[in-house]
Amino acid sequence: MPSALPLESRSPARGHEPVLAEEVVAMLAPRAGETVVDCTFGAGGHARRIAPLLGERGRYIAVDRDPEARGWFAELAADVVCATRFVGANFADALPALAAEGVRADVVLMDLGLSSMQVDRPERGFSYSRQAPLDMRMDPHAGASAADIVATASERELADLMRTYGEERYARQIARAIVRRRAQEPITTTGDLVEVVRSAVPTPALFAGGHPAKRVFQALRIAVNDELGSLERGLAAAWELLAPGGRLAVISFHSLEDRMVKRFMRDRTRGCICPPEMPVCGCGREAEAALLAAKAKRPRQAELDRNPRARSALLRGVRRLEEAP
Hints:
Blueprint: H1 21-28, E1 35-38, H2 47-50, E2 59-63, H3 69-79, E3 83-87, H4 91-101, E4 105-111, H5 116-119, H6 146-152, H7 155-166, H8 171-184, H9 190-200, H10 214-225, H11 227-241, E5 242-252, H12 255-269, E6 289-291, H13 301-306, E7 314-320
Parallel strand pairs: 1-2, 1-4, 2-3, 4-5
Antiparallel strand pairs: 5-7, 6-7
Helix pairs in contact: 4-11, 7-8, 7-10, 8-9, 11-12
């Protein structure tokens, strides 16, 4: 069986390191002959750790809506002996389609973070630290961009978006500043938006808690890509795709995602829900899954030293029981 390739080995994106790579492999324990569905392939960092473990009888199915991921997948496919397949779609749409084909997965992995290559490509518009078109679409050919939302949403809609998806304390003030600015000239670049945010946030807040536009950019990115809606649908679809004994692992990067993942997994690992005073169970509910770790896994300090972007990552996982009801 081929051994796992080192992180740096023939990487399609130089310098890329997948988050919590060792913890993902240990939690999912991929074995020869299994089918793995990678819902967010990105640059293939996790795939290069997992695919070599599947052997000739295994299968690695990569899903990603970013068209650039197809080129990174081609490099992986040339390096491994297992069967490979790329599906260019949002995982919330791809997973039901795979299930309809009769695919049953032994392992499903979701890495919900942005790819380093997306952040580091200024023209994609994800970064508040680089001047670029205000885009933020995972698939640059689909749907409205961040600039479209900033140009058309009402002041109330903008404030609600930033408060809900970014937990932005100054959402109302920033929304009002956006509406005033766009009445004078369009907000079309990341720099334009950062300038507006800086003008709306109180001076003390400019120097506390990281970049002042961080939460605004997060909120717009989530809205542009319907990330929470996709996650909700994708989790349910991933569960249906899992074979008995199959393992599901999810890496999240902010509290909105993690709460959704935690609730989903908790609901499937919960058995009887009868009141404690009932002497005999009347609900008949049985657990469908078992946790793969009692608590979420976090990056170790050595990883954070190499990759500070991993700081907010949380890994959770469950195993579908062999005889799920």
